[in-house]
Fold these 2 entries.
Entry 1:
Amino acid sequence: MKIAVLTSGGDSAGMNAAVRAVVKMGILRGCETWVVREGYEGLVKGNTKAPDTHNYSTTQGNPINLPESLKDDTLVRNLRFGDGPLLRDGEGDTSDASHSLKGRYIIRVGWDDVRGWMGEGGTFIGTARSTTFRTTEGRLAAARNLIKEGIDALVVCGGDGSLTGADKFRSEWPDHVKTLRANGDIGDEEVEKYGHLKIVGLVGSIDNDMALTDMTIGAPTALHRICEAIDNINTTAASHSRAFVVEVMGRHCGWLALVAGISSGADFIFIPERPPSGDSWEEEMCATIKAHRNVGKRKTIVIVAEGAHDKNLNPIRADDVKKVLAENLGLDTRVTTLGHVQRGGRPCAWDRILPTLQGVEAVEVLLTATQDTPSYVIGISENKVTRVPLMEAVLKTQEAAKAIGEKDFEKAMSLRDSEFGE
Ligand code: F6P
């Protein structure tokens, strides 16, 4: 089997560990392994240039006795992605322009290519929003590019929009093969050989917003970042006896806000799933904070999920909260929007363990996949790695979003869909 792995959607800490796990497990199970740069965009662009050959063996320095077939000197060693840190000092001739990956988006990789990826943040293979993959022509080009490289299995690590894209791609695959045959792009042998595409999803998102899995890759690290930030805010807040309104990410999901609030002892938390139930969130919040101040608290922390709203679905923004704290309680208040600090940086231990276990399982799923098995997404439930039918997870996620009353559900969904090529 030839497995390609790509990352899509907003990046999250642990994506590199996921790619590493898929590559290493794939090799151990006798597969050829490939990475696709820049998410679905790379699939659509494919390779317009022949691979560079050089003298490095991807097995170099690897203590494991790999199959002879993989001792191949044509693989790209220590991939060089733009400014990525993948070529380390003394390892390979970085000055040689022929090592550039320009014109190559689908790249065969070996064991050592992913060495050292476990603890690195972001995604070395890149992620992009692809409008072209959202079109039938784009997906047809993606199918052509995969078949050209002989790839028959795909691992997608991304959010629900990206995974929906993967499932759609798989379901359309036989039509793409037919069209490619009709256009003369492929022959009968390939039609026979590439009858169906095996796909599996890994959920990479800091939002922890996917149904049927307890945790998504990157959410624990983002949570750590928020907690650290609030710890830092706490000291200055206490010094000045100030209130801070901290806005956190999560899109339409309040998990980050809720759990960060619990782990930092926040005074009040706004999440989309459970808006304040009374007629006035302002009164409810002020009563709670006043009570805390009355028992001697010198500082106030209010966490606002970016998707928070009141019970009538009107958005609640950090600045609205600040205004109320200042005007109704007379508190000297500041707003801190944590932004992308939450998404960046090295993965915490759990964001190395989770993608590793799930990447291993993803390869096992592909090895047993048939035309009739559903597309799976790898989850974790009660500390056990699970396989869940991908579309069931996506549909349940959407139902949950509807149930919490996303104000503009269709718009929210199209935002998610735009992840197709992120
Ligand atoms: O889905 C991950 C996420 O970080 C959300 O929490 C946030 O709303 C969004 O992505 C931000 O996206 P961008 O990086 O495109 O600004």
Entry 2:
Amino acid sequence: TDYNITHIKEDRRLLILLNPKSGVGKGRTLFQKKIVPILQEAEIPFDLHITKFANYAREFVRSCQLFQWTGVIVVGGDGLLFEVINGIFERWDWSEAIKHISFGIIPGGSGNGLARSIAHCCGEPYSPPSLPAALAATRSHHEMMDLVRVETTSQIMFSFLSIGWGILSDIDIESEILRALGEPRFTLWSLARLIGLRSYTGKVYYLPADANITPCDNKMPSFDLSNNADLPSEVHLETNNGRQRLDSWYSAASRRSAYFSTTGSSYQSTTESDGENLEKPRMYGPASQLPCLTAPLPPNWKCLTGRFILVHASYQTHIGSDLFISPQGKLNDGLMWLLIIHASASRTQVLQFLLGLATGSHANPNLWDGVIEMFTVRAFRIEPDVRERGYLTVDGECVEYGPIQAEIFPSLVKVMVP
Ligand code: ADP
Ligand code: MG
């Protein structure tokens, strides 16, 4: 590969957000020693912000003068990029922002799934602190990347990596206490989880890749808002019908009204009515095409019922630098790979599966007699039995244990590629 540094002609300026606590906590030194020289050599101006606490990057991105930069780079793990992406979708100008900005990730975390996936998809070697990732920052090459809109009963978020229920999420969350070890913590905890193998009860609904999303029949009202004068003063949304999604941020008690922004695909909400202090920012982003979380699904969806050791959806090749979960994944194929281990799998099979993750050999369906399945979907819903305890994770972060649904939005954002 040609690693010549490209000198820029265009007006580029980067925002760099660095998590000093990522991984084993060496991000700052690594950035100064390895990355700054490359950016200086390429004469790319940048503004560096060190995060001060969790959600610092998210708040920063939500409220900053974003358009002064052409790219946002995180130095950290997937968790930091998750904050940045979701901060973007909390901006009313999100649709302009995602056209303008490309996102980059310089791996420094203990979960570096996306950095590894981007390197893989571009046929680049991967070794943090990734030289290719740094060089990507000096160029203006980008690829489009799919994002997944995720909904639980308490929040809406946008995910770029995976949604998990079962053994992989258990390992990811429970091994937090071994953070000081860096990525090997996954391997160690895998063994522990295998000894105390658990399964979880619930339902998994999915829309197969070859089926179309039938937009939900009680769709959002739409208006021609090309002229601001047409803006309706208020649109009241019923909360006991299929579109209560619009307001799922808010407590059921709060009265609310909403109006639609000029794109018609997003909305804003005002809550002046009851004087409740609603701190939680609005989540904008493209509107869902699915029925709300409590409504029945269309007939072209399929359903699996029973006990599961694992249900994991991933949309990139890797969910960690040694976890080659969806070998056929692409950055922008508009597909999620749904991986299912039924409770009937034996310990030996689960062990073989976990070992296979490093090389991708687990993805061979002939190995598993149907106890492990892997197929592509466009949307899914998981309804765990909440009488049991467990974890649900989105891009490695825990979310509320309860119903969750997700749908893929093809090619929604730009990512920097080497
Ligand atoms: P890792 O891959 O090691 O988990 P990440 O960069 O993904 O590293 O960050 C892990 C978590 O740390 C993220 O959820 C993020 O919100 C949080 N975080 C970001 N900045 C800070 C900070 N300065 N102090 C503590 N936590 C932070
Ligand atoms: Mg994909």
